[in-house]
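Fill in residues.
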């Protein structure tokens, strides 16, 4: 088997010289001009058959079944697979793509959300004099600039602070970050700079002050990874590729080459996961872009093939937005075990991660409690003691599997470079493995170049540099204002639609229903604290969403931001999808349960709920126990030893507070460990102990009972005069 290390072949090597020849303003203008020229070149003479409306999933499946032979069949709908499909179809190759789950359902939706060259990879390249790793960083920095250009609605530059706590580290880190700028050359987003201690705290007030010397700020890109992946896949579909999610490869099709007598891969037997129907998809070339599942398809081609992919799990957590500034990230360059932790604002929340541990390949990775607590400990090391980092503030957590390429005997995943390899088997199966999210486009270009050469395909040169992705056309930074003015959407909702759908946001707004309120005029939210609206569920179906999980995880990002909010939105999402797709009641129940299971296991709901269990210790001192028992007995007037919704409702009515009965059931159910419809005194004390330790936060029952108690104490006893007399 011939392996080819993937090195960039486009002309980025002279970036540093160009940067030196220009001043900063001229440099930026040069870069913009180059980007415009690239865009013009990419768009020139490209036909977009489905510019107005995407073909339905059924139409796509029919194309897969009925087309006699494709030039290229891509297996895998992650960033790399979608990138391969877009590259192929824009070279005028007849292209198909199949994905056994949803687009971006695997690693591509579970990243750190950064578009970056890799500061730590550059450090290793310099320290180890590794030219290949240096070129990988250089390639990634070029791709970073291109990605920010072709999807400006989904991505943006992000300043990242590197706090320094020892004087000698300041020049060391400064030199490293300046080298990062230098390697980027004309693709440098903004020049890095040094901050004094006072300025660092002004920008990042949550930072630990003790022994802080100063900080260095550099720039990388940030994006909405799942939406970016989807934009690539939809762009391929608009250009004429037949793409279908929930379509798995059952086996590879082979035929004998009449000249050599050898077996050659000539397509795949596929199965529509939603119906079970099987059909053949014939293709001159099959590309394996299945990420962590790379070896599964390679062994489908040849059973005794050895593994080339060593998976590594990376866990991330999401905590409330108040833990970080709105426009500044943080990098911990040396954690307690030598790893790197990012602490970044994302979608008005804060994302922290990642870990790096060897793992087994699975379609449903689960975030471990040890990894969650490791990230929390590292975050605490960098934040002020005034900021209490609580386990209960983890709103969501997930694990993604990195498809690292390595010697199968290696066990140290931390030292593995995330470069990629392109391999071609004896039977002609083309495999693209490894790599980074940022370099998906150049990886796809490399893969298609190899496929065209090895299979003698007639194709045009690559045209994806500068090719604008789904939604980029028509987007401007002020587009949201038109949405507010033309449709009567809330400002926050309009900003969200513009940054998620770009120029297609108007199509979503047209589907939004009238609220019946004075303001907003249209756009009913799925949950009150997030800007996702019901119309997005309908639009998600047009974007090939087939399940409720597709909507909460990848069309919107609600499941990644707050599992409880996603859980609350699920019944409404299932209702809207069920009505649109004519689901039976049995199907609706099945969808609801599957989505709840996804949130429970894969999005960290299980870890969150297990912070309060029947075996939780009560760690309260005597005065606290007395205080909380007194609070409990204000609701348990009959001294039953437990409270029900009736008890809580009675107290609330006495202070003129009204809560819907269903909502009250949900509030008590969060604490009702026995699930017997009531909260015992021990369960309440376990709750308050968990709140004290930070294992549980934002408990609605705890806050409600405390507020009610304070209101009762403030009002005091009702006098006879105020009660209107008596007998």
């Amino acid at each position: 088997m011939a392996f080819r290390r993937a090195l960039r072949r486009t002309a980025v090597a002279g970036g540093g010289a160009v940067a030196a020849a220009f001043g900063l303003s001229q440099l930026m203008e040069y870069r913009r001009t180059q980007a415009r020229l690239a865009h013009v070149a990419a768009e020139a003479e490209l036909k977009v058959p489905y510019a107005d409306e995407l073909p339905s999933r059924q139409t796509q499946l029919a194309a897969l079944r009925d087309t006699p032979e494709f030039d290229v069949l891509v297996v895998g709908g992650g960033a790399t697979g979608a990138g391969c499909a877009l590259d192929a179809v824009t070279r005028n190759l007849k292209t198909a793509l199949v994905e056994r789950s949803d687009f971006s359902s695997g690693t591509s939706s579970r990243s750190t959300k950064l578009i970056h060259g890799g500061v730590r990879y550059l450090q290793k390249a310099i320290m180890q004099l590794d030219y290949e790793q240096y070129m990988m960083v250089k390639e990634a920095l070029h791709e970073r600039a291109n990605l920010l250009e072709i999807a400006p609605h989904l991505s943006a530059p992000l300043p990242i602070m590197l706090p320094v706590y020892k004087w000698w580290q300041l020049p060391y880190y400064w030199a490293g970050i300046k080298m990062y700028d230098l390697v980027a050359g004309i693709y440098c987003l903004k020049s890095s700079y040094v901050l004094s201690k006072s300025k660092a705290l002004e920008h990042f007030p949550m930072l630990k002050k003790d022994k802080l010397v100063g900080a260095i700020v550099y720039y990388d890109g940030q994006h909405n990874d799942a939406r970016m992946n989807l934009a690539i896949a939809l762009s391929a579909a608009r250009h004429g590729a037949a793409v279908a999610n929930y379509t798995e490869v059952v086996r590879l099709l082979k035929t004998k080459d009449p000249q050599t007598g050898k077996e050659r891969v000539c397509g795949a037997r596929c199965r529509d996961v939603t119906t079970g129907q099987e059909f053949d998809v014939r293709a001159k070339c099959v590309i394996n872009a299945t990420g962590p599942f790379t070896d599964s398809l390679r062994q489908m081609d040849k059973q005794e093939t050895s593994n080339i992919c060593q998976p590594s799990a990376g866990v991330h957590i999401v905590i409330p937005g108040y833990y970080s500034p709105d426009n500044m990230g943080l990098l911990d360059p040396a954690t307690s075990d030598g790893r790197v932790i990012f602490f970044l604002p994302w979608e008005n929340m804060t994302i922290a991660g990642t870990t790096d541990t060897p793992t087994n390949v699975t379609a449903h990775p689960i975030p471990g409690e040890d990894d969650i607590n490791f990230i929390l400990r590292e975050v605490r090391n960098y934040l002020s003691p005034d900021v209490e980092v609580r386990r209960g503030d983890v709103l969501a957590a997930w694990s993604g599997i990195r498809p690292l390429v390595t010697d199968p005997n290696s066990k140290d995943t931390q030292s593995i470079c995330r470069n990629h390899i392109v391999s071609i088997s004896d039977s002609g199966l083309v495999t693209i493995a490894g790599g980074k999210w940022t370099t998906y486009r150049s990886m796809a270009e490399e893969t298609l170049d190899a496929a065209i050469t090895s299979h003698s395909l007639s194709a045009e040169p690559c045209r994806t540099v500068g090719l604008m992705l789904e939604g980029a056309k028509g987007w401007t930074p002020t587009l949201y204002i038109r949405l507010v003015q033309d449709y009567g959407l809330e400002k926050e909702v309009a900003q969200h639609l513009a940054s998620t759908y770009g120029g297609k946001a108007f199509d979503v707004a047209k589907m939004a229903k009238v609220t019946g309120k004075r303001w907003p005029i249209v756009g009913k939210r799925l949950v009150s604290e997030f800007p996702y609206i019901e119309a997005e569920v309908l639009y998600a179906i047009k974007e090939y969403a087939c399940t409720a999980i597709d909507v909460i995880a990848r069309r919107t990002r609600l499941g990644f931001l707050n599992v409880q909010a996603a859980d609350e939105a699920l019944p409404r999402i299932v209702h809207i999808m069920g009505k649109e797709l004519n689901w039976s009641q049995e199907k609706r129940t099945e969808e609801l349960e599957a989505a709840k299971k996804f949130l429970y296991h894969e999005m960290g709901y299980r870890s969150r709920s297990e912070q309060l269990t029947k075996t939780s210790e009560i760690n309260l001192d005597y005065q606290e126990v007395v205080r909380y028992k007194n609070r409990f007995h204000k609701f348990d007037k009959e001294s039953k030893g437990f409270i029900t919704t009736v008890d809580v409702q009675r107290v609330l009515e006495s202070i003129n507070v009204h809560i819907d009965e269903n909502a009250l059931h949900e509030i008590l159910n969060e604490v009702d460990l026995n699930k017997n419809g009531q909260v015992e005194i021990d369960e309440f004390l376990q709750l308050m102990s968990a709140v004290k330790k930070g294992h549980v936060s934002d408990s609605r029952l705890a806050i409600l009972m405390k507020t009610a108690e304070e209101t009762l104490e403030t009002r005091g006893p009702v006098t006879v005069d105020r009660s209107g007399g008596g007998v």
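Confidence is low (pLDDT under 50) at residues 1-25, 717-727.
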